[in-house]
Each structure stands twice: as structure tokens, then as C-alpha cells.
Automatic annotation (TrEMBL):
This is Pyridoxal phosphate homeostasis protein. Its cofactor is pyridoxal 5'-phosphate. Pfam families: Ala_racemase_N. InterPro entries: Ala_racemase_N, PLP-binding_barrel, PyrdxlP_homeostasis. Belongs to the pyridoxal phosphate-binding protein YggS/PROSC family. The modification N6-(pyridoxal phosphate)lysine is found at K36. It comes from Neptunomonas concharum.
Length: 231
């Protein structure tokens, strides 16, 4: 079994290589370590190797880890489904939320963001494969939502996030990521400060990077297989 250090090095290499192959700068692609189901010690080990951004899906699990690791200056990203009664804790404890897909959630996050903290960074989640089971707004709803969210004072809409339909077919992956890239460029005409395209996971990070991902969200390739089935 490979160690977290070896996995980290391998993931960094894959990102660098994918960036170089797409004529992009490796430093323009940010690695978000997805740490759902992992123990605080595993996150700590990765932090000590230089990883500072961690993504969590489940609020209570995340809050426990934030508490356990509060001696480290970690940047916490919330990437899971959001129920409206959970927005306050998210607004209080995270720097980023990738999974905002409706105005009501954005409004609550803005209202509940503590005045002592900088604005909360938001990505609008797009249901790019139009799956009934998936969260996210439809691509044709994104512009209106973005225009509305841009008016909220305590959040900053930074870009888009997607979880495409799982497939090992790299052409299908490329097709979906191209749709995201096109949508992102369209929206940037109205919102030039958008700078974040959060897409690509362990199995498709290279394809995502080839199509403009600026954040890849990586779990298993860093930590190994998850021990219980989630998402
Ligand atoms: C679990 C998860 C990931 C990471 O997936 P891996 O295949 O383990 O890299 C990325 N994004 C989201 C939203 C997730 O829930």
C-alpha cells in the first residue's frame, strides 16, 4: 500500500504533467484534498507535506475535524449537498463553498457570514450531465442565478463547479468538461472576475485540466480507497 507522501507526490506530478501537456502553468491549477471519511491524523499528515486546502462533504464530520485540527491554518472548502438549516455553520466555518445551486442557499450564506470574516467564496454547482439524482442548477439557469448572487454582500461568486456523470470513457469526460469550459467562458463575459472552474477528481483530473479546470478535487488518489461507500 502506498503512503500518503507517495500519493501526494504522484498527484502533484499528474497535475504538473497535465498542465504542461495543455500549455498551462502548473501553479494555475489548485489541488483540493477531499478528506471525507478520513481521520484527522491523515489530514494532518498531508498538511505536513504542504497541502493546505481540504474539502469536506458532510457538515458534522467536517466540524469535528475543523475542531481537531484548529492548530493548523487549513483552508476549508465545503463541497457536499447543502440543506438550508445547515447554512449557518457552513457560513461560520468555511472559506469556500463549491456546492451552491440555488439562490436561497446563497442568500442564507451571505446573511449568516460573520462580519469578522472575509466574504465567503462560492462556486455555482452545475448539473452538467443533467442527471435527476444530482444536485446543481441546469446550465441554462446559471446566468440568472449568477446575476442574482453577484448582488449579495457577504459572498463572492468565484466560478463554477461540476460533478459529471461517472464514466471511464475519456471522450465522454472531455465532452462534458468542454461544456463546462464553454459555459464558464460565456459567463465570464458578464462577470470578468470569475476565476474558478472546480472540476476533475481522481479518475479524470488530467482531462479536466486539459479543459480549463483551475481546482481539481482529489480524494482516493491521495488517501487511498474510502472505507465506506459515500457518494
Ligand atoms: C468524493 C468527492 C470528490 C473526490 O473524489 P475521488 O474520486 O475520491 O477523487 C470530489 N468531489 C466531490 C464533490 C466529492 O464528493
Amino acid at each position: 500500500m502506498s503512503s500518503i507522501a507517495e500519493n501526494f507526490q504522484s498527484v502533484r506530478q499528474q497535475i504538473d504533467q497535465a498542465a504542461t501537456q495543455s500549455a498551462r502553468m502548473p501553479q494555475d491549477i489548485h489541488l483540493l484534498a477531499v478528506s471525507k471519511t478520513r481521520q484527522p491524523d491523515e489530514l494532518r499528515a498531508l498538511y505536513q507535506l504542504g497541502q493546505t486546502a481540504f474539502g469536506e462533504n458532510y457538515l458534522q464530520e467536517a466540524l469535528d475535524k475543523i475542531e481537531a485540527l484548529n492548530d493548523l491554518p487549513i483552508t476549508w472548502h465545503f463541497i457536499g449537498p447543502i440543506q438550508s438549516n445547515k447554512t449557518r455553520a457552513i457560513a461560520e466555518h468555511f472559506s469556500w463553498v463549491h456546492s451552491v445551486d440555488r439562490l436561497k442557499i446563497a442568500q442564507r450564506l451571505s446573511e449568516q457570514r460573520p462580519a469578522t470574516l472575509p466574504p465567503l467564496n462560492i462556486c455555482l454547482q452545475i448539473n452538467i450531465s443533467k442527471e435527476d439524482s444530482k444536485a446543481g442548477c441546469l446550465p441554462n439557469e446559471a446566468e440568472t442565478l449568477l446575476n442574482q448572487m453577484a448582488l449579495l454582500p457577504n459572498i463572492v461568486v468565484r466560478g463554477l463547479m461540476a460533478i459529471p456523470k461517472a464514466t471511464t470513457d475519456s471522450e465522454a469526460q472531455a465532452h462534458t468538461f468542454t461544456q463546462m469550459q464553454t459555459l464558464f467562458h460565456e459567463l465570464k463575459k458578464q462577470h470578468p472576475l470569475l476565476d474558478t472552474l472546480s472540476m476533475g477528481m481522481s479518475d479524470d483530473m488530467a482531462v479536466a485540466i486539459a479543459h480549463g479546470a483551475t481546482v481539481v478535487r482529489i480524494g482516493t488518489a491521495l488517501f487511498g480507497p474510502r472505507h465506506y461507500p459515500q457518494n
